[in-house]
Structure formats: structure tokens, C-alpha cells
Design goal:
With about 190 residues, the chain is an alpha/beta fold. The longest helix has 28 residues, at about 60-85. The chain has nine helices and four strands; from the N terminus they run βααβααααβααβα. About 55% of the residues lie in helices and about 10% in strands. The model has no long low-confidence stretch (mean pLDDT about 90).
Length: about 190
């Protein structure tokens, strides 16, 4: 099993990541991705953080807190239904995902995927998926800081973490990207 985290477009779009999921499957791996709902809740929660940490609009924070609580309730329903069905792994409740980042990075780091990126990596490692590909568009400074920049700190807390950061860019060689991932996979095996 190999987790895929990173910049939202590159993580989910085959066009943006050179068909990463297909490549992982061809290598005998099961790709594991967090759902898009976590990213949506991350965006809502950030307005609450803006108010608490930076004194931004209380109205916007209250509105976003209400929307956030509503979506959290829907996520609880989703988790309950998935557990009842029993065929799939339900997502970790977002409140728990959010807390996973606290030992790695502060909630004030919210550019791009910010604190959500290391939280997703820690979630994967704790769920028994220590092999992770962190995807990012070339030159994406927020992702390089909150993703690639947190790998060492994550490994300090979770030595079993086997993380590779891969830049996806129109000028980057697909062969070089795949070779970096194969190197990570050889360490996993």
C-alpha cells in the first residue's frame, strides 16, 4: 500500500501526475488517497483559524464554523454508513486528522494544503501505510515547505515513514519521476 498526498490538483488528476495511480498499480501497489472532503473541511476550518490567530472577521469565522460543523456531521454519517457496510475503510474523522498535525506543524501554516499535508502523512503512517509519495507542482513553495519540508520531522516521530517527494512539471522527465518512486518502493520491499 502506498499513500499519495500533495497539492490538490496534482494528487487527484492523472493529467497532473502522469497517471501516478496507474503506475503504482502496475508496480504491484495499492494507492491510498485521502478523500476530497478533508480538503474541503480544511478550507472551512482555516477561516476559523484566521479569526483565532490573526483577528480576522468574526462573522466569517462564525459562518465557516457553522458550515464546518454541518459538514463534520455529514462526515460522521458517512463514516457510520461505511462501517455498517463493512467493505471499505472509513475515513478518519477530520477532527482527529486535524490534531495529527499539531506535533509536526502549527495550524497557522495554511497556504496551499498547509498543515493538512503533514497531517495526512501522519494519518497514513499511523494506519499502517508508511510508504508515501508526496506530489507537488514544481516551484510550489507552500507544498515544498509544508510537504517536503516536514518529511524530516515526520521521520523523527515515525522512523518507519518511507516518504518521497516528487515534482510534477511539464518539463520534468516522467522517467525520473518514476525512478524516484521505484527507489522508494525498493526501500519498502
Amino acid at each position: 500500500r502506498v499513500g499519495v498526498v500533495g497539492e490538490i490538483y496534482v494528487k487527484f488528476s492523472p493529467l497532473g501526475n502522469n497517471h501516478l495511480e496507474d503506475f503504482l498499480i502496475a508496480e504491484g501497489c495499492e494507492p491510498v488517497l485521502a478523500g476530497l472532503l478533508d480538503f474541503c473541511m480544511y478550507c472551512l476550518y482555516n477561516a476559523v483559524v484566521d479569526h483565532r490567530l490573526y483577528g480576522r472577521s468574526g462573522k466569517a469565522a462564525a459562518l465557516n464554523q457553522g458550515l464546518y460543523n454541518f459538514v463534520l456531521g455529514k462526515q460522521k454519517d458517512l463514516i457510520r454508513i461505511i462501517r455498517k457496510d463493512g467493505h471499505f475503510r472509513p475515513p478518519l474523522p477530520f477532527e482527529e486528522v486535524r490534531k495529527l498535525s499539531h506535533e509536526i506543524i502549527g495550524e497557522g501554516v495554511k497556504m496551499g494544503e498547509g498543515w493538512l499535508l503533514p497531517a495526512e502523512m501522519v494519518e497514513l503512517v499511523q494506519e499502517g501505510v508508511p510508504n508515501i509519495v508526496c506530489v507537488q507542482p514544481f516551484g510550489c513553495l507552500p507544498n515544498h515547505i509544508a510537504g517536503k519540508g516536514m518529511v524530516r520531522k515526520i521521520r523523527e516521530h515515525y522512523p518507519e515513514a518511507n516518504i518521497v517527494s516528487v515534482d510534477y512539471d511539464p518539463g520534468a522527465s516522467k522517467i525520473n519521476q518514476e525512478n524516484r518512486i521505484k527507489l522508494m518502493l525498493s526501500a519498502a520491499r
